[in-house]
């Protein structure tokens, strides 16, 4: 069949199809030209019949729906051509829909041949090959998409918004590792715009006139756009954007939901100034962003109905005229005296965060909400129970260091014992084989085949288990010491780190010391992991002892360390238990 196809080459009518791998016309400009030059050379050398001039397309093949590609296949179905000449199979398709259509037309002879500089695809032998190579192209696109998303997620975790910086900032650095810095030409001008707006006396239109006409502020010139005066929509976008106070909205790689992330760039304004701006924008009907990062969501459940616990923010203001406190969301004035918010002189703005049951499993759930301050207070009490001071930590780390030094001899003793047991298994196995094939067992007086197989399997299982223990002996000891050290360090510093503004660290600590976090009747319950329960119990006993010691008395520190030291062997006896995973 392939030979017939080659013999009937004069019956073939070709379309040349060339596609760029990027829709950005600035990238790979020479790509199409290089493809067409090579393909035209093939046309001349092989005397191929070309129906029309080369078809070109600047569109990704990741998604179906390329207009030039679809038009080419339609024209082939109408009989205008019956062959395709292209740079490579992946130029035709990188998605399963287009790949399936091409494969179907080839297998049914609608397309007689697909030629590339490196190979030819015919109906009789290329179906599977096209499917494999098309699948590879599709898989490449999928993996590329995942890698891009993973890379963007890494940038977001590091506090860098993976998109063009807003006016007043610049993206700098190489692609893949770009950061955001202040624009020395525009940063101060945009800050002055905020200053004017926060006075409450300048409308946005007036600030726009001042910025563009008096200051000459223009957008950042880029390759094809930029260098233009700001517009009203751009102005409202600036005053609505959390980026200027240090946060940005992006999709969470794990959940797929959009949420707020703390940026690593230098903020232009404070969060209070941003909140003030949102209050002023309320009279224009412009809603402030509602998305915010809450550190403890997704980790607790309701103790009554077992729904998840969520969080929300409430924003209130105190009227400067009548002192009435009210929610200023979607309001432009005080509901009591009618004073316009924009006319209040430095009104007090209050922000509250509440955690409460979502009631998804039971709409009639009776559980109320709890302020974040109260939730953190209760968790701090839990941390108090496992917090060790610097004296305890130093004693513990010294003890572990000594134990690590002695670990080599302990490990040798353990390995020697395991090796002896392993050698015993080998000897028993050899003895079993000798007895089974000995003349004394000619008529199975010693072992039947079933008995031999059973005993052999038992010895082999024992030997394999010992071999595994031998391999893991050192690793198990080192890992146990490492995890123990991490637990002690966590107990020493967790409370201090929890009571900072680092929301990621708060979340890590909140989820580390236990499981089954539950909120019921405004009280937090946690099932502590085994190592933290041990420390809590030991600390409770120790405090009773060293509280009897007299502070300031000579030798107080040594006596206190002695009390600590007595607890360490007790605690370490249980180090084989689940140690958790402290951050």
TrEMBL record:
InterPro entries, per database record: DNA_bind_recomb_sf (IPR038109), DNA_bind_recombinase_dom (IPR011109), Resolv_N (IPR006119), Resolvase-like_N_sf (IPR036162), SSR_resolvase (IPR050639)
CDD domains named among the record's database cross-references: Ser_Recombinase
Classification via Gene3D superfamilies: Putative Large Serine Recombinase, Chain B, Domain 2, Resolvase, N-terminal catalytic domain
Extent of the signal sequence: none
Residue ranges constituting the Recombinase domain according to the UniProt record: 166-287
Domain of life: Bacteria
Pfam families in the cross-refs: Recombinase, Resolvase
GO molecular function: DNA binding; DNA strand exchange activity
Xref: PANTHER family: DNA RECOMBINASE-RELATED, DNA-INVERTASE FROM LAMBDOID PROPHAGE
Protein name: Recombinase domain-containing protein
Organism ancestry: Bacteria, Candidatus Campbelliibacteriota
